[in-house]
Amino acid sequence: MINLLPDLNKAFFQTIYMVFISLTIAIVGGLPLGLVLFVTDKGLFLENIRVQSIVGIIVNIVRSIPYIILLVALLPLTKLITGTTIGPTAASVSLSVAAIPFFARIVEASLREIDKGVIEAAVAVGATPWMIIKDVLLPEAKPSVIQGLTLTTISLVGYSAMAGIVGGGGIGDLAIRFGYYRYDNTVMFTTIIILIVLVQFIQFGGDKIARFVDKR
């Protein structure tokens, strides 16, 4: 087991790397998508049912595909972007594609929790759409969005473990190569414990941050 410590250390940081990259892309892509899904809905200040429907359908299509299938289906795109289909950087492509619509729906749900009266008041005083988004929607939804970000991060940890099936690296890859193929239960249980501790740490940190920013 001691001989595997370097591999465990490497696998752990590969997992952190994959989650960090895909989470960053999920925020960059998912936050605007979630805002579009909300503000273009019926009765909102940028109502556009056609745009809302198209974006919603695209988001739902990606979300309906099980991650392991999405991972395999995106191998050509992964090869095009990264030049390879194995390793943590390659796995980050499919992780990002899976995370963007997931986080977008969480953002949309968080925005729907905001009192419509607050939005109507902002519209009544002549606030521009950008001002409403920046000064009303995002501050009001911040605690819920952070909780959603925590959920997204935990989901990405699980997805990254699945990426190990196709040589994506990380803790999942280590569990498959040593724990499954070599029937080493010690490695398997160790990787499980590492994942449990990591998820608990993420959940604890996310809850603390959400409570800290909640000024309501």
TrEMBL record:
Gene3D superfamilies referenced in this protein's UniProt entry, alphabetically = MetI-like
Asked if the keyword Membrane belongs to this entry, the reply reads yes
The protein's UniProt keywords, in alphabetical order, are: Cell membrane, Membrane, Transmembrane, Transmembrane helix, Transport
* Any one cellular-component term (Gene Ontology): plasma membrane
CDD domains, per database record: TM_PBP2 (cd06261)
In terms of PROSITE patterns, this protein maps to:
ABC_TM1 (PS50928)
* Subcellular location(s) of the protein: Cell membrane
Record family assignment: Belongs to the binding-protein-dependent transport system permease family. CysTW subfamily.
What is the protein name given in its UniProt record?
ABC transporter integral membrane protein
Q: What is the lineage of its organism?
A: Bacteria, Bacillati, Bacillota, Bacilli, Bacillales
